[in-house]
Amino acid sequence: MQAGAIELEKLKVILTRPSEKYYPVRSRNCFEYVNIPLTKIVPGSSIDGIIREIMIYGPRYIVFTSTIGSDLFFSHYTEPVPDHVFIAIGSQTLNSIRNHGYDGLKPARMDSSGLGNLIAGLVKKGERVALLRSNRSSKELPEILKSRGIDFMEFTIYSIVELEDNRLENFILENHVFGILVSSSMEAEILAKTCGNAIKSRNIILFPIGTPTEKTLISAGFHNIGLKGESSVDNLIKDIEKEYCNNSGEWI
Q: Does pTM surpass 0.70?
């Protein structure tokens, strides 16, 4: 290894996921991955009550846009309905459904647009769709379903709350940060508000998950935006390492 590579190995890629969603990153040791949550997840006060509301609504399709929503739902889904069809936005959420003993569908394009098109292609006249989401979910999916005339209802099964103690700016100022993986529009808004100047002055690359997150970053004045992922953090990390790491696992 060349002497200059020793310092480069210290470059860090930050994830800003809620601690409830974070798990250690499998990498080629090209970067050091550090999770610094900007938000926390608060389950709905009565998941059983939410599920009763869903059953009264009577959907044919139940749609999950996160593993958290899937896990909360199935942990209280004590009276399965044979006709229910479960749909996940991506591979990780589909795995969550399967881990609870059910199967489901996922779109080929794992984002709101792909999910909306999948739902629109499945739903027949008279069938309903339940969207299980957070209080801060993107409006892109509901807008797609409205435009396609789909009968749907949103159910807030958990809330995402901004953390008061945000240590991200201090971390950026004290470390060699290469990039930040931003997994939601809410995280993008918090980044802009709390440490936008630090990110811009150090030319840190931002890697968004999903088009809504990318648009929020651009609207906030960020220009150094790198690769964009769909719904999978793992896949985006693989793409980042493919782009910036050589075959030996060193930073290029």
A: yes
